[in-house]
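Re: that backbone. Tokens:
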């Protein structure tokens, strides 16, 4: 009998490449409930994650480096300080010891600056990937605390499962029980900067949403969501009128149960009874748009 090689316990070997998906973050509703003294807005949002995703890969390398690939990488090339590299530096600092070099590759498939948390999801995926690559063994809450320093939306992306998000994004609790449903995403290929959309919001703040413990099926979920809203949708439409056309096109798709903008836009989504219906419907949208149809990641 051959002797079994001694197995490393706990820490992951650092000489192996690791990969983590960075799924699109969708705000099924987004109520702006107030504003902090520092200008950040208080939110109440039910967040789910779509099958559409970027991917972050790490392999051994010198120092921290980042290569970009994928169909949407062009929009990022000009950015000197990508959130993925900031995540790497932050995690290395928190580890407080010498760590091997990490060569990061970001496969960018989600449109940039589009309300589905691409940059936030990438940063969260980088934290998860490097936590494994370096064998740091940091638990979810510790990663979420680091994530908050990278952006309000990054903590919710660490677990990438259905979550109710409150505070400025750091107060996370379990989402109500969600039925199976499908989703179409559409972006008219305009990028919007989040601060400008928040600044253009007017009128009184919204109350938090009242949510049940669970929804029986996709139709019941859609009906409940129709009574809620995304408070950033009106300011986004006034700054970017094509969003209204995207919402119209989504609502007109066969089988669409409801349509809404996600985050600060311009990406909008429509709900469907299942992933197959959404996948078919997405193909009916204008090919010049970024469009995607499929399923949603379930609770863990
Ligand atoms: O945290 P992040 O860098 O993603 O936020 C970008 C900008 O969006 C902030 O500088 C702020 O203007 C606005 N924002 C906000 N309230 C939040 C999240 C973001 O006002 N909860």
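Recovered sequence:
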């Amino acid at each position: 009998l051959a002797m079994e090689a001694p197995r490393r316990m706990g820490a992951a070997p650092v000489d192996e490449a690791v990969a983590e998906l960075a799924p699109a973050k969708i705000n099924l509703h987004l109520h702006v409930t107030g504003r902090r003294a520092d200008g950040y807005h208080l939110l109440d949002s039910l967040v789910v994650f779509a099958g559409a995703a970027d991917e972050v890969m790490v392999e051994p390398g010198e120092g921290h480096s980042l290569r970009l690939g994928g169909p949407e990488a062009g929009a990022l090339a000009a950015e000197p300080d990508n959130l993925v590299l900031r995540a790497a530096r932050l995690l290395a600092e928190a580890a407080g010891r010498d760590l091997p070099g990490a060569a990061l590759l970001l496969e960018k498939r989600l449109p940039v600056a589009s309300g589905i948390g691409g940059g936030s999801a990438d940063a969260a995926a980088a934290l998860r990937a490097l936590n494994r690559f370096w064998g740091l063994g940091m638990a979810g809450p510790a990663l979420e605390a680091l994530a908050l320093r990278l952006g309000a939306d990054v903590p919710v992306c660490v677990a990438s499962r259905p979550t109710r998000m409150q505070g400025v994004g750091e107060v996370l609790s379990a989402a109500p029980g969600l039925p199976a449903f499908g989703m179409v995403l559409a972006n008219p290929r305009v990028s919007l900067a989040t601060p400008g959309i928040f600044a253009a919001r007017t009128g009184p703040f919204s109350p938090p949403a009242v949510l049940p413990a669970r929804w029986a099926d996709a139709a019941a979920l859609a009906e409940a969501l129709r009574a809620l809203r995304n408070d950033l949708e009106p300011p986004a439409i006034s700054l970017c009128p094509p969003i209204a056309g995207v919402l119209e096109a989504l609502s007109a798709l066969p089988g669409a149960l409801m349509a809404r903008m996600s985050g600060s836009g311009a990406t909008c989504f429509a709900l469907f009874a299942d992933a197959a219906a959404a996948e078919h419907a997405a193909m009916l949208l204008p090919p010049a748009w970024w469009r995607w149809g499929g399923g949603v990641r379930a609770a863990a």
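Residues 1-10 have pLDDT under 50 and may be disordered. The domain at 18-173 is CATH 3.30.230.10 (Ribosomal Protein S5; domain 2).
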